[in-house]
Amino acid sequence: MNDSIWDWDRAWEVLPLLLEGLSVTIQITVLGMLIASILGLFIALAMRTPSRWVTAPLKFLVDFIRMTPLLVQLVFVYLLLTWVPGYVVGFVVLGVHYATYMSEVYRAGIEAVPKGQWEAATALNMAKGRTWRAVILPQAIRNTLPGLGNYAISMFKETPFLFAISVNEMYKAGQDYGANTFSYIEALTMVGLLFLAVSYPTSLLVRRMEIRLA
Amino acid sequence: MPDPTNSAESQTMTNTSGDVPAIEFRDVVKRFGDNVVLDGLNFSVPQGQRITLIGPSGSGKTTILRLLMTLEELSGGLILIDGDPYTHEYKGDKWVAVPEKRRRVVRNRVGMVFQQFNLFPNMTVLGNIIESPIHVLGKSKAEAVADAERLLEKVGMSEKRDFNTNELSGGQQQRVAIARALAMDPEILLLDEVTSALDPEIVADVLDVLREIAETTDITMLLVTHEMQFAREVSDRVLMFDKGQIVEEADPETMFTNPTHDRTKEFLKAVLGG
User: Signal peptide: which range, if any (chain A) (predicted)?
Assistant: First the structure.
């Protein structure tokens, strides 16, 4: 039995450990997306201010975050802020990283609101802030929901990077089990299947949302 | 650009007495890049008059409405509403654009209905109508709703009160848009080709609503339309535009039966298929 490449007993044995890790993975994805979707909106709005003193440094920062690897950012921040738990570093760095992408989704969502909506708001003499809150953002955010869903799946799949900063997410649970039992194949296969079990139905949901909003 | 007026100081604040025109254009210039759409346009509209602007597309009619609604910025000249310089003020020795805050004071007197309706799709029919009466005019919700219901009745849309706007046909959306503009109780109503995007069989419904408004209110109306029969019925005066200039100005009877200018004759022949 131990000579074979696949051992069903091992595969069932690792499952509860992985499910615990999955719960951490999901928590981190939810918290990370919360940061990404709020911060992303603020970045998108700040980029619309006419002042170059705001937009130029922000553009640099956004490009910097996008053009450097997530793994490097995670480890760098983890080593820099030694007193912050890896779990927190994990979802904050993921959130900030994805905020730079979400800001693009918001920008597109805002630009997709027809010009006539702004004009109607002016014709009704609405104040700028009220126009944003009551007319533009509700429509823009609706436009961004599919993008938000896609980035959530993408972030979910990148949580294994948190292995590098010792967060007990699902991939680390699988690795630890493999290290103790040498049953890496079973553990990592189950990890892959569990990722698929969450992300595939989610992607179907996102696709349905895209069709409904189109 | 020549200084459009010297009497700015004497025309400080609101003056709605009968002899002050509701709308006055003084040497208005509008350029889009190198394209001069309006070149020193002068005209005025007395209180309560209904004016129809006709002319070929690109003649500047819609630009006039958009300037009045501050959807476009002036390139030169002045627009006055009830004698108030609307978008600019005399400071030192020149005209400067007024801040948005001051514009909003005068803008309350102007309402506009668009060709594409432009209802807010994230609100219900009622939500569209009560939005600005509550948040701009400061009405209570109960009062705004009561007013909205009265207006919905007027445009024949009472049953659709709680519908989403995307559940309505084009003609229904336009009637809601008219109610929404009226809910702000404007002194001046701008109608920009409001039936052009509608199927022919429902144009009449919208025109009926507008006809009733023309008959039952004293709102100053400026309309750009291709519905010549309607223009003839409701307007006091028709202005024929070509290349950003008024080429002819007359009462509707004269304009449509006995135009003098060749350009008007050509245009009317083309649109009326005569």
Answer: none
Count how many domains chain B has.
1
Query: Is some CB atom of chain B closer than 8 A to the CB atom of A114?
Result: yes
**Pair A136, A117: CB distance under 8 Å:** yes
The mean pLDDT value for B231-246 works out to 91
Whole-number mean pLDDT of chain A? 93
pLDDT tens-digit profile of A28-63? Answer: 999 999 999 999 999 999 999 989 999 999 999 999
For residue A142, give the chain B residue with the closest CA: B122
B104: contact with A, CB 8 A cutoff: yes
- Classify residue A181: in a domain, yes or no: yes
ipTM of the complex: 0.89
Which of A119, A125, A138 is closest, CB to CB, to B104? Answer: A125
Domain span at B123: 119-185
pTM: 0.86
Instruction: Give a three-class secondary structure readout of chain B.
Output: CCCCCCCCCCCCCCCCCCCCCCEEEEEEEEEECCEEEEEEEEEEECCCCEEEEECCCCCCHHHHHHHHCCCCCCCEEEEEECCEECCEEEECCEEEECCHHHHHHHHCCEEEECCCCCCCCCCEHHHHHHHHHHHCCCCCHHHHHHHHHHHHHHCCCHHHCCCEHHHCCHHHHHHHHHHHHHCCCCCEEEEECCCCCCCHHHHHHHHHHHHHHHHHCCCEEEEECCCHHHHHHHCCEEEEEECCEEEEEECHHHHHHCCCCHHHHHHHHHHHCC
Is residue A3 in a domain?
Answer: no
Domain holding A129, by residue range, is 8-213
Q: Is the dihedral of CA B92, B98, B101, B106 positive or negative?
A: positive
A117 touches chain B (CB under 8 A): yes
**Per the structure, how many domains does chain A have?**
1
Q: Is the distance from CB of B151 to CB of B182 less than 8 angstroms? A: yes
Dist. CA B186–CA B190, nearest whole Å = 10
B155 located within any domain: yes
Interface contact flag, B131 A125, Cβ < 8 Å: no
